[in-house]
Structure prediction request, 141 residues.
Amino acid sequence: MSENSKNETVNEVVAEPNVEIATNLNISEDVIGIIAGLAASEVEGIAGMTLGFVDGINQILGSNKKYSKGVKIELDGKKVTVDLYVNVTYGVKIPDVAWAAQNAVKTAVETMTGLEVSAVNINVQGITFDKKEEEVKAIEE
Prediction:
């Protein structure tokens, strides 16, 4: 063999299976609020979401946030804290409903946004009575 053939290097091309692409993705707090509100409203026992004082003023002034009503979002980098203001149905176990709502919101937000949910705080603002049950009781009496 010649001296040149000993010094030749073979360049191998190695394909990396996981290529990380840098992206700049910004998700609005309103979008996170809508995701959290919809997830919470699907939990059995939650009768609806309520407006806090600030949300009530914003709605009066023309800011219509119907889908994220009763939801407050705090972003800290890639961590999210969600505060929910809800009404529950009369007769349900509030701790069970709160636990189910926390799990539903955490799962939905983390799955859809990729952000880490650090806390989901449930604030029960009221109890809603089912009008049909009241009407049936009134008829029976």
About this structure: Residues 24 and 71 are 25 Å apart (CA to CA). The helical segments are 3-7, 29-41, 53-60, 94-113, 131-140. The chain is about 40% helix and 25% strand.
